[in-house]
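ok trying this again, last paste got cut off
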Amino acid sequence: MSNGPWTDEENDLIVADYFAMLADDVSGRPYKKAEHRRALLPLLNDRSEGSVEFKHQNISAVLKGLGEDWIPGYKPAFNFQMTLVDAVARWLALNPAWLGLRPGLQPAAGLRETAQIWVGPSPTLSNQPPPQELEQMLHIARKFDVAGRDERNRALGRAGEERVLAHERAALRTAGRDDLARKVRWVSDEDGDGAGYDIASFAPDGLPRLIEVKTTNGWERTPFHITRNELAVAEERRSEWRLFRLWNFSREPKAFELHPPLDAHVSLTATTFQASFH
């Protein structure tokens, strides 16, 4: 059995096979991993079944770093070569429709108003992955600008905002505040961007909640973009402004909230600069 590095051709073959299984998985169609593995083996350079299985787990880890879906049956395994990351990137470049066909982007109007999102604790240093694992994922996120991709995905952003709008109304109704639920506004949709938040909601006691929604299909530590205006509003209205981070959106939406000051929770890095003439 070969123990040498995987070639680009082998990586392309196994990545394509992985996405074929993933498409079935997210669509709820039955498939058998063993059948895929047996069909793939003759095309590879004398690889063992265990090697193929582990490479599938490596692909899950790459997709996690890219903020993408992965097959739950293949737990992410790290310490992979960057050539595998390049192979996944090649597949996505050749199949751009994949990102537009993701589940979970249906309008929230089709959801029951009572469906609330699971909101848990925010990621902290105390619950971060092992350093090497975290560094691999962050390196991938930086190299492929995962935060920028999510920011440019208008369908994803709009679907996330609509889902949080339904969540806020449902939470207020559950608290017996139908009067406040009727007043919750989707500001970015009704008034356009520029307010520094997307949704104007309320706490059950009537205090304002100004919610900026950031949505990703990735894991909870997927980086995100935030504008100078959003940061300014967060600073000016600290007691009211909240960042609602919606993650794992295409599978089973989960969330956490960040309260100002944001630099107490995340590292803020300038990614663009305005150039002015002297």
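PB: full thing came through this time. Residues 8-101 form one domain.
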